Amino acid sequence: MPPVRPAAIRRTATTLADGRELIYFDDSEPYVSGQRTRRLDDPRPLPDRFAPIPQPDGSLAPVTGPQMRRDPLTGDWIPMAGHRMNRTFMPSADACPLCPAREDADYSDGEIPATDYDVAVFENRFPALLAVPGAPPEPWAVDGEELWQARPASGRCEVVCFSSDHDSSFADLTPGRVRTIVEAWADRTAALSELPGVQQVFCFENRGPEIGVTLPHPHGQIYAFGYVTPRTRTMLERAAEHRAATGGHLLRDVLEAELRAGVRIVAESEHWVGYVPAAARWPVEVHLAPRRDVLDLPGLTDAERDDLAVTYLELLRRLDRFFVDGAGAPVPLPYVAGWHQAVLGEGRELGRLHLQLLSVRRAPGKLKYLAGVESGMASWISDTTPERVAARLQELA
Length: 397
Prior knowledge:
It is built from six helices and 21 strands. By secondary structure, it is α+β, with helices and mostly antiparallel strands. It has two domains: about 10-225, HIT-like (HIT family, subunit A), CATH 3.30.428.10; about 230-395, 2-Layer Sandwich (HIT family, subunit A), CATH 3.30.428. The chain has an eleven-stranded antiparallel sheet, sandwiched between helices. The protein has a four-stranded antiparallel sheet with strand order 6-5-9-8, with no helix packed on it. Strands 3-4 form a two-stranded antiparallel ribbon. β8 (about 140) and β9 (about 150) form a beta hairpin. The two termini are about 15 Å apart.
């Protein structure tokens, strides 16, 4: 097996033509040593994304960012990002904006000007969350009705390209490359956590058209939220109740309870535990948590990061064999994999780092649709049992 930890990882930042940040994370020569540098200029004729917009009468109007509105029935904030309707949708490899620039062609509209890269991170061109410089932060009332509160959907959205190979997937990577991705996740979490107003950082990957992926190139995203998301808010409320009632830490106590029961444990290493949660709601759902109490990805030690690169890859490769077709061939699993990290304000001490991986596939050729009671009432009904899912993953070990 290749070494888990690259000899070194070189971080090189630059700016794209419209002002967005691009960062290369290199673990291969001659880039990691600095003998060569990835292409840093962006020749596209893109206007500055925050430049005033010319109007039909010749005047200039300031750029406006996305807004979000608060649902008075649930308290949830709902970002409104209409510009995302025009984002790139399922391009071919020769038109994919995440592929490196081709040496035999003019660099046109790709997001990464280098002809190759190891791991690259850049600000999303079509962000759901965006802090516009100089924009007033004050909330307002929609239609003048105080019941409907609105404010700017500030924050930041980034894209993490896991590989320059358009036809690859996360599970195809080496442990060394996954280790570089872990370093990129930690680096970006730390940096985004320092931005004004950010309350939560979420690193995640959507994989497969069944999930709604619009770019098949292997990549993930990072959202820096200017609010605490609904699921996290609920988890914090339950954690606070648990602490008041027992003095314990809810997420740690859940992990310890799963370890005591043992029946749903699907992966164990020196530093990590993977399990199917006792009340799993998705057809396939696995949580991966560190044994040690860790608040976020930057808090992981080198040993924990090394171990994660191996353990997570093993888990993904098993999940890709979870379902088989009529001929016995594996059916790749569509999934969402997201890192839950401690919030940055009140309630931070109640958080504990863990990965949640879920899939909508319930059988080969069949998906779980959120109809009736799930969509209408947020009342989930599972089509299987956690023990059955865990037994299948244990069988594949």
